[in-house]
């Protein structure tokens, strides 16, 4: 009886061994390295395209190249707050390189050149699609100490392709330079004076509405600016069209 039992146990062990060997042979016949790799295709990012048309509505003030910044939540400037160095450079000299490199910018672009009184220009901005998307704008009024125009924030998150948003813009005072209007402090063609100066001598030191220029014909004898350079609000018009 014992011998029969041992025989059955031995037979069972042999059967299990054969089965395991067969499984091993099947695995070896289809090695992992022979299987085709799975290719994961990343979806193409959705890109929004905006065409911005910028019109100078003044009779005598040249405007610096329009600067456009796309952002989600934090605008590059706000009314009533202290101007950044980038905005100060625009408002005092029209130079926009520092401004366009704002740390919160998702994308930015500059128009190619300044825009004269009554003229219109356009610029195209490309930015990856965002759940929250805003645009900000800034341009200097050339024959001033530190006046600029623009829009702090325009929500374009839900703007459909082919649709437009139109806004007019007032003149703001950057609050970074006193409005002396002297020949050595106004950089525009009417005076040809100094542009950006890192020293801030305007006691306000915050962005406010611009009071307008006084001019040498209005009693400010030291002003390098004539009455023809005075301006009323609005000073520009901006039309934003989503083209893609």
Automatic annotation (TrEMBL):
InterPro entries: Spondin_N (IPR009465), Spondin_N_sf (IPR038678). Residues 1-24 form the signal peptide. Residues 170-191 are annotated as: Disordered. The keyword 4Fe-4S does not apply. It comes from the Bacteria. Keywords: Signal. The keyword Calcium does not apply. NCBIfam families: NF038123_dom (NF038123). This is Spondin domain-containing protein.
């Amino acid at each position: 009886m014992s011998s029969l039992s041992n025989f059955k146990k031995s037979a069972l062990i042999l059967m299990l061994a054969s089965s395991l060997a067969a499984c091993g042979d099947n695995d070896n016949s289809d090695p992992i390295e022979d299987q085709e790799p799975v290719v994961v295709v990343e979806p193409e990012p959705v890109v929004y395209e905006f065409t911005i048309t910028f019109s100078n509505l003044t009779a005598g003030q040249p405007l610096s190249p329009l600067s456009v910044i796309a952002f989600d939540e934090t605008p590059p400037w706000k009314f009533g707050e202290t101007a950044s160095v980038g905005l100060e450079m625009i408002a005092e000299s029209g130079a926009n390189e520092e401004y366009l490199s704002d740390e919160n910018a998702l994308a930015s672009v500059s128009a190619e050149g300044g825009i004269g009184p009554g003229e219109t220009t356009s610029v195209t901005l490309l930015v990856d699609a965002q759940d929250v998307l805003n645009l900000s704008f800034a341009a200097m009024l050339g024959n001033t100490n530190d006046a600029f125009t623009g829009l702090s924030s325009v929500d374009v998150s839900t703007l459909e392709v082919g649709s437009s948003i139109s806004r007019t813009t007032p003149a703001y005072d950057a609050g970074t330079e006193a409005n002396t209007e002297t020949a050595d402090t106004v950089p525009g063609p009417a005076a040809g004076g100094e542009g950006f100066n890192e020293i801030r001598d305007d006691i306000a030191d915050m962005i406010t509405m611009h009071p307008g220029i006084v001019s040498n014909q209005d009693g400010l004898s030291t002003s390098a600016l004539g009455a023809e350079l005075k301006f009323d609000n609005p000073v520009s018009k901006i039309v934003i069209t989503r083209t893609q």
